[in-house]
Amino acid sequence: MKKQQVFYIHGGSPYASYEDYLLDLHEIAIRDLPESGDKKRWYSTFRTALGDQYEVFMPLMPNKQNAQYDEWKIWFERHFEYLHDEIILVGISLGAMFLAKYLSEQSIPVSVKHAFLLAGPYEDHYAPEVNRQRAGSFAFESKVLDSLSVPQSNITIMHSKDDFVVPYEHALKYKAALPEAELVTFSDKNHFLVEELPELVERIKQLH
User: Domain 4-207 falls in which CATH fold?
Assistant: First the structure.
């Protein structure tokens, strides 16, 4: 019997131009100094938490510090030959935005049992209040979600009201665009930079 496959896509930082990326390198905080220590995150034990019945893909997407949609698209598609039907997709932050855009513009060659979008930015090319530099090549028009290749009822949006990276309002935008999707709201998970995320693990196990 084939194992239940789960495909996880991490976050990253997109920019509208290379110059914006270089400017940010001068300003962003350095997070990996020796005294900062190793911080445990839920995704570091994701495979263990799910157990041996699951085959979990967690690829390192290209250049997450200056992420480009076309590069991530190529790398995602390179994995298709290893996937089988009824896969579960999990995207967090930029990974969630990538899945939303990809599944709106493309279809993968296997059936998708469920897609989880965690703390995903929601950007629209034509929304004047949006800072396009943040979305970069990952930005999409809201109307493209109408052609999502996965049934809305097979999508779960997860977001925390205290997210300090992607405001909770972005989750509400996803919910408005995908009314049949389920919105799961937390109050204390910030940008899901937490040690454990049993709520996600249990929801995945309930699908198996």
Answer: Rossmann fold (3.40.50)
